[in-house]
Structures are given as C-alpha cells and as structure tokens.
Amino acid sequence: MKTSHILLLSRVVVAAIITVTFLQAVEAGGHRATEKRYFLRGRNKSWHSGWYNPDVGRPVPLVVPPTAEFVSEYSWGVPSSRVMPLYQQFRKPYPGAAYVPGSRPLMPTPQHPSDTVQFGVHAIRGPWGSY
Amino acid sequence: MEGRPVVSEGPALGRERTFAGNQTDEMRASHGEKTMSAQRTRFAMIMLLSAVTTAGLFSQTVQANPINGGVEAPVPDVFSNYYYPPIPPGPYPGVGAQLYVSPQPVPARVGHTWVTYPPFMPHEFLYQHRRRYVRCSGAMGMRNVTNAYWW
Lengths: 131, 151
Hints:
heterodimer, A: alpha/beta, two-stranded parallel ribbon, 6 strands, B: alpha+beta, two-stranded antiparallel sheet, 29% helix, disordered N terminus
C-alpha cells in the first residue's frame, strides 16, 4: 500500500515536471517570442523593392494589421505566386532623416509590369500600440 | 529461467520484498510507531520537494510576463509619429517611412499638429485587442485608469 502511494506520488511529480517543462519549451522566449523574432529578422531590411509608384513618386507603404505575418506576391511565369514573411513594422522612435546618402536609385513601374512588387506598394505592419 | 528469483515460492520471501527493505513482520510490529513517523517524514519531504520544484518552475513562467501581454502600455506620447527607419546602402537599402502625416519632427517652437486622443488613432482599429492606460493623477498618489477595447 505504501509502495503504491509513493509510486503514484512520484509519478505525479514527474508528470508535473514534464508538463511544466513542456509548457516552458512552448513559451520559450516569452509570449513575445514571435515579435522579437520578427524584429530581429527585420533589422537592416528595406520595406520596399527597387520600384516606386509613379503616381506618388516614391514607394508607398501599405499599412496592414500588426497581426499580419505574411504577404502574397504575384507575377507572370514561374513561380506565379509566393508568400513572403512580413517583418517590417512601424515603431515609435524617430530614426532621423528619411533618406540616407548613397541609396541606389529606384525605378518606376514598367509599362508592362510582370510582378506585383513593381507597383511600388509594399506592406508594413502597423504599430502594436504606444511603443 | 536460471538465475531469476522465484517470488511465489514462499510467503515469507514475498513479505520481505516490500519497499521498506528487509524488515520482517516482527520487526515492523516492534517498531510500528517509528515506522509510521518515518513514513510521514518521507511523505512530507516528498511533498515539500514537489511543492518547491513546482513553485520554482511556475515562478519562472510568471516572471517572463512583465507587461501583461501588451494590455498595460505606457502612456503614449502624442507628439511623436511612427516610423520605419531608412536602411543604409547594403544588401537591402531603403528609404524611411512614417505612418501618419503628423506630427512632423520639428522644433518645439514651431507649430505642429497631432492626434489628441491616441485610442482613436486609426492603426488601433486594425486588430482586436484591449489596453489599459494608467496615469498618475494628483499629489496624493491617485491614479486614473482608462480601459480601451477595440473589437
């Protein structure tokens, strides 16, 4: 009787430890792990491509919800569509001037576009709130 | 089969193969109170160990959640905009972008416009969430709490 009690208790303890460890592994990095990962991967990556919108004269940011994770882009040929991760997000601190010297010149939308990125409209996730 | 102990051969051998070790019934009867106290002590130690282990593991989980999932946000600065920084020349060069047309980063002596009530900013309506704004008010340590829900 005593043996069964101790065995049962030890199994309960082991099950609790395994459960907590599993939950911690799932929550590795905290509940903001995805946001941290997207922030780290989005650093030093531009939000636009090499084309600009000729109607505006510059690339146009398309604000999407901050919960968006991917964007779909379409083109002629193969592949005709692709799903790209959306790392870029608006943030609070003023980064300085909007233009840095040495940037390569952008091209306008061609007469016969072959890809949706050539329209010069690119998604940026909206901010999470007041930070 | 050789070398394996036969458990069902005698009742005395079966009684001796208990968790307590090599104690017999006579020994157990003579030291009954001592055995019970040792059993309780072991049970208490195991319970204490499990409680400490579980509390330690769960306390780490709780400490990794400092700002309540973004519900409790700092008081927003109404005089700043949202930006995406320009990327210097490299593999992914790019120009910067700002979310709203105002406020512009101008000196304080220059007149400027801003959104006077941050919960009404359009980007807050892009997804379902809630937020609690806490601001100290008064010299007596009172505070003003505003709960905002977007859904």
